[in-house]
């Protein structure tokens, strides 16, 4: 579905981001992964992508630093020539009730999740405009739509991504650039693995489909939004939550 195209995936070495990058590579896309650090595990993941017959490279960048993002985007464009798909996936949590959140807890989450998404999109938008094509997919969260206690900072950052997505869709639609958001619910990642069996059962009881989702469930939707199969879809926020927030 994506032969000859190049995708940039932030946070693409683990969890949902890895599943997305793997799915795109499996469908022929060259992959540029942006990660915070170059670890042995991250390099192994890149080798996995390259073994699928596509070009794959790892770039280290602090996405909350606008200057680093700008220089990294230039490096990616020099290496790959053109970027067709941008997946803003990188994100962090600093959960606590509002009075217990430190200023750093608030700043870090907003800086990485929201400002990082904005900085990375800004760094590639001009080349999308030059080529009059592109698909931008921002990973939000169902809690950005419904809220969640103990996650005011995270919910605010993910709600901000929704507004940003819709604004980019309106601003660049006439340039044939699409921008959509995916809002996962409870997905089996390192974060949910820390939940006790009792907590997992409580979560499942809130989900009509009765199960916690997999990263591949999210990746399947991202593949659709990245491909020409979704050519007439932009400005949408699509939940992958098993019906948790109907």
TrEMBL record:
<keyword id="KW-0444">Lipid biosynthesis</keyword>
<comment type="pathway">
    <text>Lipid metabolism; fatty acid biosynthesis.</text>
</comment>
<feature type="domain" description="Ketoreductase">
    <location>
        <begin position="5"/>
        <end position="190"/>
    </location>
</feature>
<feature type="binding site">
    <location>
        <begin position="11"/>
        <end position="14"/>
    </location>
    <ligand>
        <name>NADP(+)</name>
    </ligand>
</feature>
<feature type="active site" description="Proton acceptor">
    <location>
        <position position="154"/>
    </location>
</feature>
<dbReference type="GO" id="GO:0004316">
    <property type="term" value="F:3-oxoacyl-[acyl-carrier-protein] reductase (NADPH) activity"/>
</dbReference>
<dbReference type="GO" id="GO:0008202">
    <property type="term" value="P:steroid metabolic process"/>
</dbReference>
<dbReference type="InterPro" id="IPR036291">
    <property type="entry name" value="NAD(P)-bd_dom_sf"/>
</dbReference>
<keyword id="KW-0521">NADP</keyword>
<keyword id="KW-0275">Fatty acid biosynthesis</keyword>
<keyword id="KW-0276">Fatty acid metabolism</keyword>
<comment type="similarity">
    <text>Belongs to the short-chain dehydrogenases/reductases (SDR) family.</text>
</comment>
<keyword id="KW-0560">Oxidoreductase</keyword>
<feature type="binding site">
    <location>
        <position position="89"/>
    </location>
    <ligand>
        <name>NADP(+)</name>
    </ligand>
</feature>
<dbReference type="GO" id="GO:0051287">
    <property type="term" value="F:NAD binding"/>
</dbReference>
<comment type="subunit">
    <text>Homotetramer.</text>
</comment>
<dbReference type="Pfam" id="PF13561">
    <property type="entry name" value="adh_short_C2"/>
</dbReference>
<feature type="binding site">
    <location>
        <position position="187"/>
    </location>
    <ligand>
        <name>NADP(+)</name>
    </ligand>
</feature>
<comment type="function">
    <text>Catalyzes the NADPH-dependent reduction of beta-ketoacyl-ACP substrates to beta-hydroxyacyl-ACP products, the first reductive step in the elongation cycle of fatty acid biosynthesis.</text>
</comment>
<keyword id="KW-0753">Steroid metabolism</keyword>
<dbReference type="InterPro" id="IPR002347">
    <property type="entry name" value="SDR_fam"/>
</dbReference>
<dbReference type="InterPro" id="IPR057326">
    <property type="entry name" value="KR_dom"/>
</dbReference>
<keyword id="KW-0443">Lipid metabolism</keyword>
<dbReference type="InterPro" id="IPR011284">
    <property type="entry name" value="3oxo_ACP_reduc"/>
</dbReference>
<dbReference type="InterPro" id="IPR020904">
    <property type="entry name" value="Sc_DH/Rdtase_CS"/>
</dbReference>
<protein>
    <recommendedName>
        <fullName>3-oxoacyl-[acyl-carrier-protein] reductase</fullName>
        <ecNumber>1.1.1.100</ecNumber>
    </recommendedName>
</protein>
<dbReference type="GO" id="GO:0006633">
    <property type="term" value="P:fatty acid biosynthetic process"/>
</dbReference>
<dbReference type="InterPro" id="IPR050259">
    <property type="entry name" value="SDR"/>
</dbReference>
<feature type="binding site">
    <location>
        <begin position="154"/>
        <end position="158"/>
    </location>
    <ligand>
        <name>NADP(+)</name>
    </ligand>
</feature>
């Amino acid at each position: 579905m994506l032969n000859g195209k190049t995708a940039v995936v932030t946070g693409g070495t683990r969890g949902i981001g890895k599943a997305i990058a793997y799915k795109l590579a499996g469908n022929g896309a060259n992959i540029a992964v942006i990660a915070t650090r170059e670890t042995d595990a991250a390099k192994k993941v890149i080798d996995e992508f390259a073994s699928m017959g596509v070009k794959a490279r790892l770039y280290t960048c602090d996405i909350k630093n606008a200057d680093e993002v700008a220089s990294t985007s230039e490096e990616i464009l020099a290496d790959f020539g053109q970027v067709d798909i941008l997946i803003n996936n990188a994100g962090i949590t600093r959960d606590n009730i509002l009075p217990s959140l430190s200023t750093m807890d608030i700043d870090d989450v907003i800086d990485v999740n929201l400002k990082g998404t904005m900085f990375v999109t800004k760094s590639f938008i001009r080349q999308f405009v030059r080529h009059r094509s592109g698909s931008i997919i921002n990973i939000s969260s169902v809690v950005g739509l419904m809220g969640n206690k103990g996650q005011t900072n995270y919910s605010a950052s993910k709600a901000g991504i929704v507004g940003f997505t819709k604004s980019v869709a309106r601003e660049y639609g006439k340039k044939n650039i699409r921008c959509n958001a995916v809002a996962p619910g409870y997905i089996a990642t390192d974060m949910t693995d820390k939940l006790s069996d009792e907590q997992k059962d409580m979560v499942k009881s809130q989900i009509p489909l009765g199960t916690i989702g997999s990263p591949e469930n999210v990746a399947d939707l991202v593949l659709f939004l990245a491909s020409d199969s979704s050519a007439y879809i932009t400005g949408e926020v699509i939940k992958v939550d098993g019906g948790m927030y109907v």
